[in-house]
Amino acid sequence: MSEKKILEDRSLLLNRRSFLGKTALGIGGAALASTLGYQYFSKNEKGKLITTTGYGTKGELDSLHFPAKAKRVIYLFQSGGPSQLELFDYKPLLNLRRGQDLPESIRNGQRLTGMTSNQDNFPMVGSLYDFKRYGKSGAWISDLLPYTAKMADDICIINSMYTEAINHDPAVTFFQTGSQQPGRPSMGSWLSYGLGSENDNLPAFTVLLSRGTGRPNGQPLYTRLWGNGFLHSLHQGVQFRAAKDPVLYLNDPDGLSKNGKREMLDHIASLNDKQYQEFGDPEIQSRIAQYEMAYRMQTSVPEVMDISKEPDYIYKMYGSDARKPGTFAANCLLARRLAEQDVRFIQLYHMGWDQHFNLPSAIEKQAKDVDQASAALIADLKQRGLLEDTLVIWGGEFGRTNYSQGLLTDTNYGRDHHPRCFSMWMAGGGIKPGMVHGETDEFGYNITKDPVHVHDFQATMLHLLGINHEKLTYKYQGRRFRLTDVEGELIKDILA
Amino acid sequence: MAYINMLEIGIQIEKLHPIFVHLPIGTIVFAFLLELYALKKPSESMDEIGKLALSFSLVCAILSFASGWFLGKSGDYEPEMLSDHKWMAAFFVLANFLLLILRIGKIHWFKKVYLPLFGLTLLLVGVTGHLGGNMTHGTEFLFTPVQGNYIVITDIEKAKVYADIIQPIFDFKCSSCHNQNKKKGGLIINSQKGILNGGDSGNILDSFEGGPPQLLTSLSLPIAHEDHMPPKGKIQLSSEEITLINWWVDQGSCFDCFPKDLKRSKKIAEVLIGLEQDTTALAVLAGEMDFVSADKIKELQARGIPTYPLAKDNPLLSVNLSYNKKISSEQLNLLKGVAENVVELNLGYSNFSDTLSPYLKKFKNLVKLQLQQTPITDETIEKLKKHEWLESLNAYGTDMSTSSLETLKKLKRLKVLYVWNTQISEIALEQLAAVNPKLNFGIVADSVFAATTVEGPIFVADNNFFQEQLKVKIESYFEGVSIYYTLDGTKPDTTSLKYREPLILNESTQLKAVAHKTGWALSEITKEDYTHVKFKIAEVVLSPEPHEKYPGKGAVTLADLKRGSTNFVDGNWLGYEATHMETVLELKEQSEISSISVGALSAPSSWIFFPVGAKVWTSLNGVHYKKIAESSFPKEKPSTEVNTDFFSINFPKTAAKFIKVRVNSPLTNPAWHPNPGGSSWMFIDEIIVN
């Protein structure tokens, strides 16, 4: 499909080019563009006709498989594996049985990480933080998340997520790309490839990072998590940094005039075009389009990143942390601004949830980092009417064990990685609000109702965006790949 | 062993029937083609090949017949059809045999009979194959694309549970193998009678051997299980369909009931509603509208009007002109021809205004309209009073006011109306809600974020140490913030000193401050120690030297009055692994000293801990030292945070030129650490003498 399409596009492009040659620029650029479809041609400031590829705006899918409930996604990725037992999955039995060894009948041979496999016993431990019921559904939410609790009627909590991976790298990679091994395209890249962009001036897939205060020196992330894999490099996630240059290498060097830059790009584009006509490598077109996108982003990025003009009442919602560039709160505010501009996939990562020891003190800080801003994002989107077509996802790569890693004391314990069950929440864009999906046993170790696999989650996300997850594929090395690999069932119960 | 294998083959032979049957068909057709060829170009070898093909066909035909014989005995097939199939097959074998005899014998009337007989043989094989196919796939397989009756349910309460809900599932997913002609397992499932008769192992609706009924068991088994139904490879039942069948059987498998006669859980009720015909605006409009040509859509896109079909095979369109500051009547005119197909129109943040609003009348099928942050007023809203399909209207940040109330009341299907930051009054909204109780206004209560605190004040100073005096500025991120501070370590509040201009410090001070903003909660306290350093240190000698990886800037690091950050590789820290530190400080001139403070770092996740104690000796000549103080520091509490702190030892005033300080490391990680007993680190950045 995709190869054929590339060839078709190429022949179209060549036709246009020959047509252009014949008419010798007799028609105005705008009129030309209008008869020829996508913006393969546009005029620069000086009125000179330049070529830009249509890849920046047009997706692989000619049309959606079914009407979309969500037009864009904000994924608040909680990196490190937040403990579901301290946040959403209330297990009073663990407090009753505090310190007792986890029965083998529950663990049932579940593999352990190298960090607890040499532990002599597995003393169960319940949450040090209390839970209360919130919203019409009576969802149990921890005292650590007071703001999220107030938005309980707008979110759908899933307590029955499970994954196959047990360590961070494979688990995060699995969530993002559908495979534990690196090399496949990230979710956002799949969407950029499938749906294209509705905004010509911003990338379809943007990434914002923040470090948590719970474990400030936790695992770093790596750019391949938002990489394009085998898709065109045009589809990779673009990281917006909290620094003077939000996007690296975007600004012109000192002393280069805007006109000089434009002329340089035109010359490079014509050289690249020559190369393309000779070899027909679509990656050359990607490159031309990227130069053009970067040029437009020189204006659009500083504009969207400038949150200083947001009124104070907005900061009152997100919390004053949002004033500090690079915090989760600031990134949430940016996420809303990007969503307003129709950026397709806005990926946030908040690091620091990997609390192997001293969990109680660490998770308290970590929860404080994200609670108010996450709730504010929902509220802010809701007031602006954006929540109805924006899917917001909150969750990490796996959960944490119901037994303590390291020494269990009255006020202190740790938890190891646990892939068999964990919690996430979703809101907006076609998700049924105010509900809890799935259950775990009273030990909080195994799922007892409505298990949701990572591929199910991915299939559901694509469904909400109007895509049949089995039909968005890319042929590479002789095989058709998709985000959900060969699995994935729609979670029908959580659809509005 | 060989015996057992034979036995197994004996049992399996009937299952080979579907493989064997295709061989004689192919071979006999091929033999016929050879024959035609031989007529044109007769040759010795063609004759031989012809014989061979006929012989092979005969062998295959006999094998098919034999395996089919056993398969027929299973009783899964309708006897009449089976009998026809069997007889036709027998005739075919016979005809094939005769052909071979004729071919080999070359009797003199050979040519007259041979080809007609061949034609008859082909006919026989065709009929036999067709009858076999009918038994396998059902008689309608060849001519009707989908089996079963598609029943449109408009009102679920009036639908019959069995006839309108359950039987269609059986028809679509089960009856191709369980029908009158092909009774797999003896079961016919396309009629009430068949279901009640059950299959070979009895009733399928009642409890089976103490367990659940067979019907439910076979649906719920894992797909890889031999008894799972439908078998692997066939179209499976959806989870809703399984839920419905379970519900029907659990409730007594009633054949004449309506949904209200049976107990319905919340989940069942939801699934049942899902069976009703889709009457949502999008579904109805999609059924009514004509398609817009792909060229037209491309043209609109090329003219700067992003227009997208809602989905494949869907005539409805979505138009997104948000952020477009140049929307003109020309542009909107372009949309005229397709306006009725447009169900989603996004004009948010654009220049769309009352002057352009008459165009909205053409878009009479709008389901979702976004006008947020545009210069429109009630005049635009008024143009919407005939938009009967409108479900979502976004007017946040516009001048829409209470005057729009009457128009909005007319929009019966409206589900969401975004009114945030508009002029519309609370009372108007209440009136609207009374007319349309399901209407949502997308409002979030102010109380949700009432407890937000202001960010604590920020202190700006050159250094935390000073020798003469220090200027400290206090700032805040927000406008309209008042800052209150204390200098004596007490807790600041709104009655404390109010900050107006930079502070000048002359002595060691602990500065604390809070920020206050009307309508917000008071900020957390910002706290900082500013230390007055009396004595300059001339020279520092270290023993032992710090670890080669963390040498800081050498010994002088301890006296450079520069604090290390929480990053232990910033060059301001001296790192020691599992060893105590000893240093000799030489003061510029002999002085009376009374305290020593050691700056240290704790970063438990990096195996770095605070020192546990220190000893101090003094000397006037650098040769003879006298111990003057020893102290142990408070035990470190379990934590994962990175912290810096000062540890002080006070003693009576002593004259000194040289000071020897020994800082004791905990040497190993504490018991609460995930790696208890491992070699720990100690990081020191500064030693202050006062």
Concise structural overview:
The relative contact order of chain A is 0.20. Chain A has 496 residues and is an alpha/beta fold.
Structural class of chain B: alpha+beta
Question: How far apart are the first and last residues' alpha carbons of chain B, in Å?
Answer: 97 Å
The shape of chain B, in one word, is: elongated
Low-pLDDT stretches of chain B are: none
CATH topology (level 3) name of the largest domain in chain A: Alkaline Phosphatase, subunit A
Q: Main β-sheet of chain B: number of strands, strand sense, barrel status? A: 7 strands, antiparallel
Molecular shape of chain A = globular
Give the CATH topology of the largest domain in chain B: Leucine-rich repeat, LRR (right-handed beta-alpha superhelix)
What does this structure look like?
The complex is a heterodimer of chains A (496) and B (690). Chain A is α/β, with parallel strands linked by helices. Chain A has two domains: 2-61 and 260-297, no CATH class; 72-245 and 307-494, Alkaline Phosphatase, subunit A (3-Layer(aba) Sandwich), CATH 3.40.720. Chain A has 14 helices and 19 strands. Chain A has helices at residues 2-23, 29-35, 84-87, 92-96, 104-107, 146-150, 168-177, 187-195, 258-279, 282-305, 312-318, 328-340, 359-383, 454-464; strands spanning 41-43, 49-51, 72-78, 131-134, 139-142, 155-162, 205-211, 238-239, 345-351, 390-395, 399-404, 415-418, 422-428, 435-437, 439-440, 447-449, 452-453, 474-476, 479-481. The radius of gyration of chain A is 24 Å and the shape is globular. Chain B has 690 residues and is α+β, with helices and mostly antiparallel strands. Chain B has helices at 2-12, 17-20, 22-40, 44-72, 79-105, 110-137, 161-173, 192-197, 214-220, 239-250, 266-275, 281-288, 294-302, 329-334, 378-382, 405-410, 426-435; strands at residues 207-208, 211-213, 307-309, 317-320, 342-346, 368-370, 392-394, 416-418, 458-460, 465-466, 470-475, 482-486, 497-498, 503-505, 509-516, 526-532, 537-543, 574-577, 581-602, 613-619, 626-632, 643-664, 681-689. In chain B, the strands form five sheets. In chain B, strands 17, 18, 19, 20, 21, 22 and 23 form a seven-stranded antiparallel β-sheet that branches. In chain B, β20 (613-619) and β21 (626-632) form a beta hairpin. The model of chain B has no long low-confidence stretch (mean pLDDT 88). At the A-B interface, α2, α11 and α13 of A face α13 of B.
